[in-house]
Here is the input.
Amino acid sequence: MSEGENQGQQPRAGRCAIVGRSNVGKSTLLNALLGQKLVIATPRPGTTRSCVLGVYTADDPPTQIAFVDTPGLERPKGALGRVLSDSARRGLTDSDAVVFVTEAPKATSAAEINDKDRMVLQALEASKTPVILAINKVDRLKDKDKLLPFIDAYQKARVFDAVVPISATRRINLGALVSEIRNNLPEGLLYDADFLTDRPERFFVSELIREAAMLNTRQEVPYGIACELETYREEPNIVRIEGTLIVEKTSHKAIVIGNQGETIKRISTEAREQIEALLDRKVYLRLWVKAVPGWTRDPVKARQLAIREGDA
Ligand SMILES: Nc1nc2c(ncn2[C@@H]2O[C@H](COP(=O)(O)OP(=O)(O)O)[C@@H](O)[C@H]2O)c(=O)[nH]1
Ligand SMILES: [Mg+2]
Here is the structure.
């Protein structure tokens, strides 16, 4: 990149959407860039359900990047899938730059464009915003020679403003990615120095509960889990939280509860530890489980339970 060089120490700030198909590491990347766990990330597809803002701040050079983590951009089936991909598309608007995250090819797969990435490329087609391709998970790429033909295939499909191979978990090349984004931002600053996110604490609390539930269940159960908080009360020595895990089938309710309640106990303990770390306070957590049959297939319920704009 020649443009953007020699900008001196002028502050720059702007909005940058992180997009891509499910499970390539978008949320992990946001947390790595922020240097703290803000959003939840699991090995299960469909973990992220709403666009969440996380502001990256640096002093040298002065930079503020308002990252927007988004759900997978591919168009999956079902009402919940549509809600998620619509939400991701909304995250694309009003950005100064877009980071398109994909993952390095696995040892066994060819160095070509992933089918779901074609849908992402399609969604980006109309966008006039600069797009930076971040190829994540290069830590697991044994054969580095595979990267060049892979990059080639993507560059044939569209012109990228930059291509940066990264690893979110090993923090490889994140500085290079940030400076490519910075090159595309307007001058000025946008936020107070300590501004991190647009969501209230209780949003992240319910996300941590959902994450613990997703990590402790398998197959199709995690995708249909939602969490609603009924009580969120800050008392002098403790934060009292009561919530309900919603599942999409009666049979899933038994799975989340587990034998003699052992699964829901484990979920509660893991979630409570995470919430205590987030709030830096002692937490009392009580969870219930409720089945709302077919909620992921019902357009109205999928919106209500997945996006939960009330929390925004
Ligand atoms: N090996 C490796 N795994 C990663 C990396 N970044 C993310 N992951 C894993 O990929 C999975 C999906 O991550 P997540 O951030 O939830 O993906 P998202 O759906 O795109 O937001 C998780 O199990 C992450 O730990 C990386 O750089 N290297
Ligand atoms: Mg995510």
In short: The chain has two domains: 12-182, 201-311. The domain at 12-182 is CATH 3.40.50.300 (Rossmann fold). The first strand starts at residue 12 and ends at 19.
